[in-house]
Amino acid sequence: MDFPLELLINAVIAGVLLGGFYIAVTVGISIAFGMLDIVNIAHPAFIILGSYIAYIVNAQTGLDPILAGVLMMPVFYVLGAAVYQVYYLSFERRGQEALRGLAFFFGILFITEVGLVLVFGVDYRYVEASYVGPALHFAFIDLPYRLLIPCILSLVMLGVLDLFLSRTFLGRAIKAVSQDQGALALMAANPIRIKRIAFGISIATTALAGAFLIIIQPVEPSVGREYIGRVFAIAVLGGLGSLPGTVIGAMLLGIVESITATFYGPSWAPAVAFGFLLLTLAFRPSGLLGR
Amino acid sequence: MRSWLFTLVCIAVGAITYAVMRGVHSEYLFVAGYVVLEFVVLATAWNILGGYCGYVNFGSAAFFALGAYTTIFFHKAYPLPIPLLIALSAVVSGIAGLGMGYLTLRLRGAFFSIATLALAVVLQTLVVNWDYVGGSRGAYVIRPQALSAFGLTIPYVEYLFLLMLALVVIAITTARLIERSRLGFGFATIRDDELAAEASGVPTLRLKLIATTLSGALMGMAGAPFPYYIGYLQPASAFGLEYAVNSIAMPMIGGTGSWIGPLVGALLLGTIQQVATVTISSAVNLLIVGLLLVAFVIIAPNGLVGFVTQRLRAREP
Fold this sequence. Notes:
Number of helices of chain B: 15
Shape of chain A: globular
Largest sheet of chain B: 2 strands, antiparallel
Number of strands of chain A: 2
Number of strands of chain B: 4
Largest sheet of chain A: 2 strands, antiparallel
Largest interface: A-B, 44 and 42 residues
Shape of chain B: globular
Oligomer: heterodimer
Helix content of chain B: over 70%
Radius of gyration of chain B: 19 Å
Number of domains of chain B: 1
Order of helices and strands of chain A: HHHHEEHHHHHHH
Strand content of chain B: under 5%
Strand content of chain A: under 5%
Strand order of the largest sheet of chain A: 1-2
Strand order of the largest sheet of chain B: 1-4
Helix content of chain A: over 70%
Radius of gyration of chain A: 19 Å
């Protein structure tokens, strides 16, 4: 049997596209966990929430799911800021974020998932859009639009965030808050306000990531659990708080998952992310581009 | 109270519980009671690592399922009596806990927690793809109707209930023993300030490894009789999220400081869930657990036990 080169190339390309989407999923965690030190394990739950909102809007009004995701970003920003406020008042201020803060986010994750099950049931939901079905073809290479569009838009979102973080005062303040809160306070910036804004942004990205998710695959409430491993694997693999690292980590995971799914069957794919995560934690906890 | 006396009291309370439940003549009571006791063991086991050392384990379901699947494995290979299976499950899950801890415990606490989440998914994927233990189709375990020993015949559910009762006694006496030993004080130093503990010569890594091993082993023991209880085991039920969330919520709601907290939390929450499953629906009862967990960590950080002791102290002049 000769080696299926075409299959391999297609798997790698699908992996790159998938990796692009993983950037959108992970960038929020890179901010929340990497820069703010908030272990928001409920991040995927917000993504699923975003998917369901895109689904409702799409089903009710026929509006494009990605546009719905963009429109929902301010709402998610407010939601994120509110969650941070509760988190700060209840845990961070009392220095209890390690144990109870984690339990708090775990509770949110759980409530969101069960709430969605109660409202929508466990059926898979999907959206209608002109680009969900067709694909671009070059020779033997397939580029499905449902992967291509989220990938490109994810890169755009990452670029905007990177510009914001490196060029504006607020963005630099967010980067600074992870390094030295006291020094930031001396620069006349309130660290708590900065953190609230940053966490709001982190959750706002999930509105768009959720819309991408439901374009790529049908969604049911427990899908989020698979993404817990993915987002943390990528964030840790790339190096916490590093946006370029996030891109590398996401692409790497996307390619390896896609190859695994193509050659060994999709039922093994979830273990890849977590295997990656465990290996990274065991051998290089600071990640590829870690500080 | 002396430890041997405490153990005797525990056994006596267990015996009385069984006698009273026997008197009611309802098999359902044992079916429901088994689940509540199972959660007592899980909550107590979680608290050894979470409450005493301050390391959050999100992978209780993984250790529980490891116990359950150890039973399935040996059930297929060679039928052994359940108490022996419980011991084997304890060894398997304990080793898993040790390995897990060795990989991640040198890092910050948050990484350990994330890695435990990862462990659950990796194990579930392995089990789904492993045909010998049933794969994603699941595996059947035919249990006998009744058990005869020493000339007595009791229904099998009661036998399982008694086994779980024994596990509860083991778990609680272990937890209490730890609290009052050097080990427990070592754990407390890790929880309060790991860096200072390390600097004072406390062997933190070794203590943490002991905690993960003990905690994992107890969770595995709780899972071992599960296939016989449920009759049909599939990955989704063994790795159910309700085990992870309950084993965190119960100690948090009861209070994480001592062995009483998980016991109170598990009895209370376990009973509420059994009632809610029958009267409302099983999805709603999980929602209740989630809401209670969030409410308690915000409002009563020391749980019910902490809340009550605070009240009692405030009343003293």
